[in-house]
Amino acid sequence: MKRLLLLNGPNLNNLGNREPETYGSATLADVESMVQEVVLSHNYELEHFQSNHEGELIDRLQQAEGNIAGVIFNPAAYTHTSVALRDAIAAITPPVVEVHISNVHKREEFRHYSMLAPVCMGQVVGFGIDGYRIATLGLIQKIESEGGA
Question: How much is the pTM?
């Protein structure tokens, strides 16, 4: 069975408590459960991982090579700052979809640029946690259309 990785960056472990006016009341467990339903309905398996530490996210991306068909990734604040994550994504073959709960383009100017978008398959922003579902469906469609992993 094909496997997908749901990867979440810093502060996403505080979903539901952190700035609910921006991020809503759903928890990370809610996100994981929703993505799990989508993945299972398409006969895939899901791994999920969250870290507040950049190096752990890089390690997990590197471990995806040869083991994961694709990655749904909310890099959170590292989106705007991490050349290291960009390099890690560029160095692996599984496609990566970047996800953001809020519309980063309607927020502070420093959030308007993603260091990662140029090396990702796509980007989903502004749909709340439903963006994870959209990203997952798009990723599966892309993998299936290319006959990947």
Answer: 0.90
